[in-house]
Prior knowledge:
This protein is of the alpha+beta class. Helix content is about 40%, strand content about 15%.
Amino acid sequence: MERRKFIQQSTVFTASFFIAKDLMAKNDGPIYGHNGMKYRMDNTGVNSTRKTTR
């Protein structure tokens, strides 16, 4: 294998690995619930804590 092609392919693989790792990362938000009923709050949706102007 040519050196340039190897470096190019390994760079693409490494970059895609870190991007996929970040996309699949678990949310580190607070955990709510009790016993076996535990869930995380996602504040990025419609009901976020953003202030709205009227």
